[in-house]
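=== RUN LOG ===
request id: a7f3
mode: sequence -> structure
chains: 1
length: 401
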Amino acid sequence: MNGNKVLRIFLLTLVAVFVLHQLYSSLYKPISTESAEYFEAVDGINVNVTVIRNESVIVSNLGGSLHFTVQNGTRVAKGGTIATVYSDSTASVAVSRINELTAQIDDIKEISSYNDRSATDLDLINSKVDSGLNKLIRDNKGGNFTNVTDNTNNLLSVINRRQMITGEQIDFTAKLTELQSELDNLNRTLPAAKGHIKAPLSGYFVSSQDGYENLLKSDKLDSITPELLATVKPEPKNSAAVGKTVSDYEWYLAATVSLNDSLKYKEGDVLTLKTNMNDTPILDVSVKQINIPESSDKAVVIFACHQMSSELALVRNLPVTVISKSYSGLKVSKNALHVVSGETGVFVLNGAKLKFVPATVIYSTDEYILCKQEKSNENVLRLYDEVVVKGKKLYDGKIVG
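=== RESULT ===
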C-alpha cells in the first residue's frame, strides 16, 4: 500500500515538473532577436524653414462650386483655365468621375488594340507591376491617400497589359460597355458651367491662400531677419480668393540658426534637405544668402530651391534636416553589439545555434547602430539576419531553443 502511495506521489511530482517546465519554456525566452534591416541615417542640423515665394492671389466673383482643372504645384500658363464654376458640388463630383471613366476607357481601348506581343519586354512589364504595387503600399502606409485612386488604376492597367502579352484571353467588352454607359449618362445629366476662372499670370498653381502672400516675397530677401520670422503674422484672407500662382521657378526657404551654425555655410553651397513629406522627402537646394543682423546671436540662412510638388505648393512652414553627411547600412539595436576576442560583432541565430559575425559600425545613436553591408556572404552580417538583442552567456555555437 505504501509502495502505491509513493509511486502516486512520484508520478504527480513528475507531471507537475513537466507542466512547470512547459509553462516556463512558453513564457521565458532565453534570447530575443530582431531582423537586420537596410536603413539610411543622416547627420545634420534640424531647423524649421519658412517658405518665401513671389505669389499672386487669384480672385473671382463667380458664386458656386469650384471644380479645379489643375492640381496644386502644376505649372499653368497665363490665361489658362484653373477652375470651372458650377451651381453646386454634385457637378464637380460628376466631372471628376467623368475624367476617371474617360481615362479608364482610353486605357482599355489601348490595351485591346495592342497585338505585337513579341515586341514587348515582359521583364519591363513585371517591373512596372512591382513598382505600382510598392507605390500603392508605400502611399497607404505613409498616409498619402490622395493618390490611392490613381495608384490603383495604374496598377490594374499594367496587370491587364501583362495578361495580354502573356497570351491570357481577356474580354473587355462587358466592362467597356459598362463604363461607356456610365460616362454617357453623366455627360447627359451634367449641368452647364456658370463660368471659368483663368490664371492672370503664368506660374505654379496653388488652390489656397494663407495670408503671407504680400509679407514674404522673393524680392525682399534682404529684409528677412530672425525677428521677422519669429513675429510675422498673416494678413486677413481675401474672401473672393480662389487660389494663387507662384510666378518664379526659383523660390526660397529661410531658416533661423545660431551664429556658430551659420558659419558652416557660405553662399553657393549645394546642400540637401530632408523633409517629412511623402512626395518630396529630399530637397536639393543651394545657399542663396546669409543674413546676419547686428547685435544678434542668430542668423538667417536662405536656401534656393527649384523643385515643386502638390505638397510643397501648400507648405509655408516646414521642419527639415540640413544634411551634412548620410549613412546607409544594416540597422540593429545597440544592445546587439558585443566584443569577442577583441573583435566587434553581433550574434545571429543560425538554425538552433548562435553564430558570432564581425560587424563594422559606421553610425550609432543611443538606440541603434548601422553596420556596413558587406558584399561577401561568408561570416558577415546579412540583410534580414536574426540578430540577438537580448540574452545571457552568449557564445559562438551555443544551442538555443
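=== NOTES ===
Residues 2-27 form the longest helix (26 residues).
The CA atoms of residues 99 and 236 lie 35 Å apart.
=== END ===
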